[in-house]
CENP-V/GFA domain-containing protein (Hymenoscyphus albidus), 141 residues
Amino acid sequence: MEQGSCHCGQTAWEVKLIDKVHILCHCGVCQKLGGGPASLNQIVPKENFKLKKGNLKVYTYYGDSGKAVRCYFCPNCTSHAYHHQEIMGNHIVVRTMLLESARSMPPGAEIFGKARLPWVKEVAQTFDTMPPDEPEPKSKL
Ligand SMILES: [Zn+2]
Ligand SMILES: [Zn+2]
């Protein structure tokens, strides 16, 4: 189990990762929501995530598919713990940078590479959008 927490400490969680790696997402939604060139994530089954402290607030937006994407964040400091896309069923996307072990985890792959900022170097195998065997595109540019 990896321990996660928000910036202010009002919320904390634990999550069981499939692999101890970061998946970099360069999509436009991650850039806008996170304010950086890419977000660091991993897809896990919903039951792998347990909220240990506080309550997360939900921000919902709709992808091009018309399906809802729900982002769960700390209502005080806005750190984004994970999001759930209706289209992904029982899986959620956890933000791996918010885990205690984030610094020791290597990059595993990069997705939505087509939206990479031109000065951001490639650090892992890159997919234009999603790897072919992933559940569904996680967001639209
Ligand atoms: Zn917080
Ligand atoms: Zn993204």
